[in-house]
Amino acid sequence: MTTTQTGYQAVITQEVEAHRKAEYPVHPVFLNRWSSRAFEAKEVTNETLYTILEAARWAPSSSNLQPWRFIVAKTEEQKQKFQTFIKPNNQLWTVHAPVLVLILSHKLRQDGELNGAHAFDAGAAWASIAFQAHLLGLATRAVGGYEKDKAREVLQVPADYELHAVIALGYRGARETLSAEFQERELPNGRRSLNESIIEGSF
Known about the structure:
203 residues; alpha+beta; NADH Oxidase; four-stranded antiparallel sheet; globular
């Protein structure tokens, strides 16, 4: 790690401490992980990538159906294919991510009936990716701004799979590599009070 990178990490640590205060004691991983748009031009090895996806393999799963699937783009050709359906504003920064992963979920149970938990379980897999990546020193950001119909066509996704988010994955870069608009937003954000999310007994 260079001196510049070390200094930037110190700034990020200060910003996390300034913007993120837990109301109850939680593991630091939950406060220190946040979604970045800035990525270094540094390769993510297959071992690192597959370690991250291995964590997702062990996510909680209703009836152990494991509906999640991951379409991975690592090569320039594969990533350019993804850029054809990512919306222009998101192309400005996703083009620099070393890896892009589209998370899908299989919608049906083994008997052909709808698996009502398929999207819920895919969300658990995404969380596992985000936290395992953070533990390995990488950053992630989920991208909802893409054309799903075009992605389905370009990637030849069957109709019984639902498309969720494109995950940009890589080593966190300095915010100065982003456009001015994105630099202003390249911060660890806070959360509303826990009491605002808890409903005791009934709505």
